[in-house]
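Q: I have 124 residues here and want to know how they pack in 3D. Can you give me a structure?
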Amino acid sequence: QVQLVESGGGLVQAGGSLRLSCAASGRTFSNYAMGWFRQAPGEEREFVARITRSGRNTYYADSVKGRFTISRDNAKNTVYLQMNSLKPEDTAVYYCAADLSTVVHTSPLEYVYWGQGTQVTVSS
């Protein structure tokens, strides 16, 4: 079992930045690839970014590429999402999730552990 707790969400103006954190506890954090997803009201949960176990490789949705950066610190059992140049359409609840597989999954169905989410609101 892995417990995930997100933090760092809030209200920001368009063009601003936020850094989300996801702290993990339980099983060995470095055994899991980690992903960030988001869900806006009335929408399906969508893939944002993924990082491999070592942190060497990262993957992004086209909508955030060049603006968001995923990173991890395995010594601190934490994964981060740095979000720059935020847009109103980035408004959503953001979730971190853990995946045991080495396959690059973008479907939320493939992730086994989830945090409770943190709200990000971008005003225009």
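Q: Anything worth noting?
A: The two ends are 40 Å apart (CA to CA). The first strand starts at residue 2 and ends at 7.
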